[in-house]
Amino acid sequence: MENAKLMIEKIDMQKIPKHVAIIMDGNGRWAKRKGLPRIAGHWAGAEALRDIVSTCSKLNIQALSVFAFSSENWKRPAQEVNSIMNLLLYYLKKEVDTLHKNNIKIMMSGDWHELPYRIVAQIKKSIRQTQNNSGLILNIVLNYGARREIILACKKMCRDVLEGKLNIEEIDQFAFEEFLYTRDLPDPDLLIRPSGELRISNFLLWQIAYTELWFTEVYWPDFKSEDLLQAVYDYQKRERRYGGLKK
Ligand code: IPE
Ligand code: IPE
Ligand code: MG
């Protein structure tokens, strides 16, 4: 892998993806390989995010969505779940001033309102503090499952129909998207999954209909700006047809 400086010169700044999504996976295996407890992998994973956010900012990417905790991750031992929650709280508190200084706007997707109050309070504070920033949107996807998001959207939509706010005939793709967490974001152009797993694991199922997928064997804690730049470089060579024909 070339270094980031060399890589960045190869990137076409006219063809930058607007929205990049990352499934931050492989923390546990990273730790295991080093003979460390799984939670050490989660801490290292949080560290890895800092550089990636900064590189996304430099590339003028509009939005970065990062999958931090899924609604299925509650199946894990309570001790691991608690440690992840504590880590989240610690990092939000620690990083929010720097993110704010760098003009980054924090957004959250998922059922984060259901998390312990101390986390909800810090999330609300971080959103408020950065709400007027005009730089990169850092969308932290937390306590999220795509199927659940779609069901919730359907429920809200049905309610609007029952209350006479929405006409059934007006329901189309665009009307539906208004009920998703991501209603203010363009669909991801590029989805990155580290750790060697070749699956989506219930992440943004609706939104990735035409997203370009990029996989790497690298575990998330080892994922560097160079890897992100390689993904963007490869993305720029892809031809997106959306069901149409080659231009
Ligand atoms: C991703 O890393 C972080 C979360 C799911 C919270 P994992 O914890 O899934 O790491 P692996 O997949 O076990 O290596
Ligand atoms: C997806 O990773 C969720 C996050 C990275 C937050 P998982 O580790 O939960 O996915 P599976 O279980 O390998 O599909
Ligand atoms: Mg995993």
Number of strands: 6
Q: List the helices and strands in order.
A: HEHHEHEHEHHEEH
Question: So, the CATH homologous superfamily?
Answer: Decaprenyl diphosphate synthase-like
* CATH architecture heading: 3-Layer(aba) Sandwich
Structural class: alpha/beta
Provide the number of structural domains: 1
Low-confidence stretches: none
For the record, the CATH class is Alpha Beta
What number is the mean pLDDT?
97
Describe what this molecule looks like in 3D.
It is a single chain. The protein has a single domain, classed as Undecaprenyl pyrophosphate synthetase. The radius of gyration is 19 Å and the shape is globular. The chain has a six-stranded parallel beta sheet, with helices on both faces. Helix 5 (117-130) links the parallel strand 3 and strand 4 (137-144). 44% of the residues lie in helices and 14% in strands. The chain is built from eight helices and six strands; from the N terminus they run H-E-H-H-E-H-E-H-E-H-H-E-E-H. The model has no long low-confidence stretch (mean pLDDT 97). The two termini are 32 Å apart. It has helices spanning 4-10, 27-33, 38-58, 78-101, 117-130, 146-162, 173-177, 225-237, and strands at residues 19-23, 63-70, 105-109, 137-144, 190-193, 212-215. With 247 residues, the protein is α/β, with parallel strands linked by helices. Bound molecules: 3-methylbut-3-enyl trihydrogen diphosphate (2 copies) and magnesium ion (MG). One 3-methylbut-3-enyl trihydrogen diphosphate binds at residues 24-29, 69, 73, 84, 195.
